UniProtKB/TrEMBL annotation:
Gene source species: Pseudomonas farris
Chain's role: Catalyzes the transfer of pyrophosphate from adenosine triphosphate (ATP) to 6-hydroxymethyl-7,8-dihydropterin, an enzymatic step in folate biosynthesis pathway.
Membrane-spanning segments: none
The keyword Transferase is assigned to this record: yes
NCBIfam families to which the protein is assigned, alphabetical: folK
Family: Belongs to the HPPK family.
An annotated Gene Ontology molecular function: 2-amino-4-hydroxy-6-hydroxymethyldihydropteridine diphosphokinase activity
Record's keyword terms, sorted: Transferase
Protein name per UniProt: 2-amino-4-hydroxy-6-hydroxymethyldihydropteridine pyrophosphokinase
Residue intervals of the 7,8-dihydro-6-hydroxymethylpterin-pyrophosphokinase domain: 87-98
Annotated InterPro entries: Hppk (IPR000550)
Family matches, as PROSITE patterns: HPPK
Record keyword Transferase present: yes
Taxonomic path: Bacteria, Pseudomonadati, Pseudomonadota, Gammaproteobacteria, Pseudomonadales
Gene behind this protein: folK
Length: 161
């Protein structure tokens, strides 16, 4: 079993509901246990002209291989109506493998740790709710250092439901 963190995002078709359905689907993955879910956060899209996003992070313990997990995540995205019309376009659901145990993965379909982790407050702050305070990434960076370099700006906690 390895501890895996999944970044979740949606900006279409009731984003908070999309994330709740995604969590439900993650909880039913084979060889996998859902360990925790962060709070939900809203923020403007990094690209202008798109609706605001709701983001959260889920923690899993899984014995799935990374590419098998990636296939399963893409099946969940597709099951929730994701259409790949344009790269970086608005989406009903985005599920990204942010961290996978202490692995460094550099394959055409999958880079872990996620490439943009350090720039994305909407991933780092929810991750920090779930991860141990002294979390060190496979590449040696600490979560504490990434948080210190990425201010909590433009993030709003999603109102409790
Ligand atoms: N912006 C925010 N706030 N949240 C996201 O998940 C997100 N995802 C994207 C782009 C379009 C880069 N912007 C985002 O893919």
């Amino acid at each position: 079993m390895e501890r895996i963190y999944i970044g979740m995002g949606s900006n279409l078709a009731d984003p908070a509901e999309q994330l709740r359905s995604a969590v439900e689907a993650l909880a039913h993955l084979p060889q996998t246990e859902l360990v925790g879910v962060s709070g939900f956060y809203q923020s403007d899209s990094l690209l202008p002209g798109q609706p605001r996003y709701t983001n959260a992070v889920a923690a899993l313990d899984s014995s799935l291989a990374p590419l098998d997990l990636l296939d399963a995540l893409q099946a969940i995205e597709n099951g929730q109506g994701r259409e790949r019309l344009e790269r970086w376009g608005p989406r009903t659901l985005d599920l990204d493998i942010v961290l996978f145990g202490d692995r460094l993965i550099d394959e055409p379909r999958l880079k872990v740790p996620h490439y943009h982790l350090q720039e994305r407050a909407f991933v780092l702050y929810p991750l920090a709710e779930l991860a141990p305070v002294d979390l060190r990434l496979a590449d040696g960076r600490t979560l504490t250092a990434l948080l210190a370099a990425c201010p909590f700006v433009g993030l709003e906690r999603h109102p409790p439901i």
